[in-house]
Every structure is written in C-alpha cells, then in structure tokens.
Amino acid sequence: MNAEKVYALNEKNEGYSNYSGLARIIYDTINPITISGRFVMSLIHVTGNTYCIDLGYSYVGLYRIGKNDAVLLDTGRPGEEGDILLNAIRENNIIIKAIISTHAHIDHVGNNSLLKNHFNSTIAMHFNEAGLCFSDLSIKNANPILDLHHAKRFYSNMVCKTDRLILDSDDKITFEGADFSIFHAPGHSPGHICVITPDGVAYLGDALLGKSSLRAAKLPYAFSHSADIKSKEQLRGLKADGYILSHKDILGDISPLIDSGIKKVNDTTTRVFRLIEGEMEFGAILKKAISEFNIRIDSYEKYARVERLFRPFLEYLVETNQVVLYSKDGCLYYSTI
C-alpha cells in the first residue's frame, strides 16, 4: 500500500479509527507484522522525527536522527515484544544508537541487553534505576520476596549495563547532536523519568497510565504512592506538543488523565482501608484484598507480583496517618486509627 493513511487511537484504545489526529501509521514505511497470529501495527508516526512502536502491550518511543540512526525510549518486555521490536527496526533499516530508559521495570528494560548486543547501543538511565538492573543480585534486592533462583528465572532479562547515568540535577541528555529534555517523575519507581524529544513530544513511561490500562488496573502500581501523586501533580506543568504513554495512549492533553490517575489511587486506597478490621497482619489483609479485587493467584510469580502491587497501598495509608503499624507479640499489625 503506497498511500499514507491517517489514523488516531480511538478512546477505548481497541484499535484505530479514521481521524486526522496526532498519530499516523505510515504504511509505506513498514510492513505490518504478524506475531503469534496477532496483527500488529508497528510503527506509529507522531510528528517530525518522533515515532513510537506498538509492541502490543506497550508503546516504546523512537526518535530518528538522519536517515538510519535512532534513539529508542524504553525497549518493552522480553520475548514476543522483543521480536516485534527487532522486526520493526530491521524493516526500517534503523540502527539504534542509544536507549534512554524511563525506569527499570521488565516491561521497559526487558530488551535493553538484546539491543545492546545487536547495535552496541549506549544505554542511559537514572542512577536510581540503573542500580536496580545491574545484576541478578540487585534484582533480588528490589524484589525481597523472591529467592535468587526465582529472581533470575523471572527477571534475568532486566540485567543490563548502563553507560550513562542520569542524575537528579540533569535536565537534558544529548545523543548524536540531538537534545532530549528530562522531566523527573519519581514515584512509580525511585528514579522514574519522562523524556521529551527534540520535536517537543513527551514520552511519559509509566508516570501516567493510558485510559484503557487505568480502567483495567486492579492495583495500579507505584513504588511510593505519595511520591507518585506528587509527580502526577507536577506533570500539569509539563507543556509538550504531544504525549506518548507506554500503556497505551497518544494524547494532546493529559490533564483529564492526571485527574483520573490520582482518583484511581485514592479510590483503591479507600477500598484497601475498608478491608482492615481491628488489628490485622499483612498476610490477612492481602488475603482479603485478593478476594475483594477478584485476583487469581496460580503461581509463585503471580503471588510475588500481587504482593508487590499491594504493599505500597498499605504504606500509603500509614504515611497519610490513616492506619498505624506496630509490633506486638513478635508480629507486625496494621490497625485503623
């Protein structure tokens, strides 16, 4: 197909509808990819030299420099998403000169080492995040419920060597003469950043969830909900010509989504608060939460993930003085005030 067709993501993010909006799929640039029987629209042109690649579960950002070179913003999950990513890159004869990672979660750094091995890409990451994926031991440290064997089994693809550390004082990083602005948004993870391309498009990582992902999230994750809410409020001051959300929207205005994201956290926190009766240990509250939020746990990995999602809500209740945490008879208890 030679003609360029113009599309935009529909509100439910269930596909693409005809609309001359922000995002465009360039059919004559890349052949659509089928992975495991799924039809994947891979390369989405946002504006100028800014693109994103649809990996199915998430978007990763891409900024083209010259004819073939590019800087990638995040790399997605290992496995199928890695295949989609490599196919999109190869079909467009792109060389990934650098990777800027918004944060060190497996669905954002899962293919860092894969691309580094293919292209000798330079990896840049906030120093707090780089330490989390430095080795299997550092991954175990960030996931204390996991033994080392399972930390390796579940998350070994996260391990990567960061070449350039981004500090709290850094407000930009330059690759191949192109300046990328840095907006610090800790909370979802300790050193989460957003990256603004030279075209003025902000790639937000997980600082905000897209509309569909937010609706579907039973326990939206943040390393610290108090820090995350603060960062969401500060996003109101981030002026950009467009916003790419990893999960999974391309927007011109994020103000309504900021409100929705904060409301989701507060509503979920209220539901968690109502689970606590008298004094309860963590495990008892978690058991009630699994039932309350209709979560199915069928593996060690799923339990570890759910515990990691749930614990920050209790911490947030303690931080906001709605719940007290204390020890008694060799156990830790939570109790409403």
From TrEMBL:
SUPFAM superfamilies membership: Metallo-hydrolase/oxidoreductase
Name of a matching Pfam family: Lactamase_B
Protein origin, superkingdom: Bacteria
Keywords for this protein: Hydrolase, Metal-binding, Zinc
Record's keyword annotation contains DNA-binding: no
Domain Metallo-beta-lactamase residue range list: 57-247
Coiled coil spans: none
MF terms in GO: hydrolase activity; metal ion binding
The protein's required cofactors: Zn(2+)
PANTHER family linked to this entry: HYDROXYACYLGLUTATHIONE HYDROLASE GLOC
Protein name: Glyoxylase, beta-lactamase superfamily II
Source organism (scientific name): Alkalibacter saccharofermentans DSM 14828
